[in-house]
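Here is the promised in-class demo. Please do not try to memorize the tokens; focus on the logic of going from shape to residues.
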């Protein structure tokens, strides 16, 4: 049985490490990338079942562009935006042409909130 694969794209390595430890303990295979420029390359090689993205990285809205690129490569890959952007900009997100993610989670969040979303989009179990 294959572990479900999660890709985390965030310019904060501490967030990647914390999520990685938590999700690996739950049985997921996890890879992280702090450089937005390398995110798509890793997406193509790792082929994750789901991706978790920050929005504000090198550019304030970079995560949205990465999300759009991911959806062009694999339209069925669920995307979760994990960001403090709504607090930073006072912006409330809804799905749109620009915002192609399935869900939004405000940082900082209880990891179990993310876990519930992974179960929702990956079918409840870490294994096929």
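The designed amino acids, position by position:
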């Amino acid at each position: 049985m294959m572990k479900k694969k999660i890709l985390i794209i965030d310019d904060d390595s501490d967030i990647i490490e914390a999520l990685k430890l938590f999700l690996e303990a739950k049985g997921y295979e996890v890879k992280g990338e702090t450089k937005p420029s390398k995110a798509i390359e890793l997406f193509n090689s790792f082929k994750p079942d789901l991706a978790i993205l920050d929005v504000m990285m090198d550019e304030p809205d970079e995560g949205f562009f990465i999300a759009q690129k991911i959806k062009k490569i694999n339209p069925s890959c669920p995307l979760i935006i994990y960001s403090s952007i709504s607090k930073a900009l006072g912006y409330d997100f809804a799905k749109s042409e620009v915002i192609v993610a399935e869900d939004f989670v405000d940082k900082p969040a209880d990891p179990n909130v993310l876990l519930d979303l992974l179960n929702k989009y990956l079918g409840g179990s870490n294994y096929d």
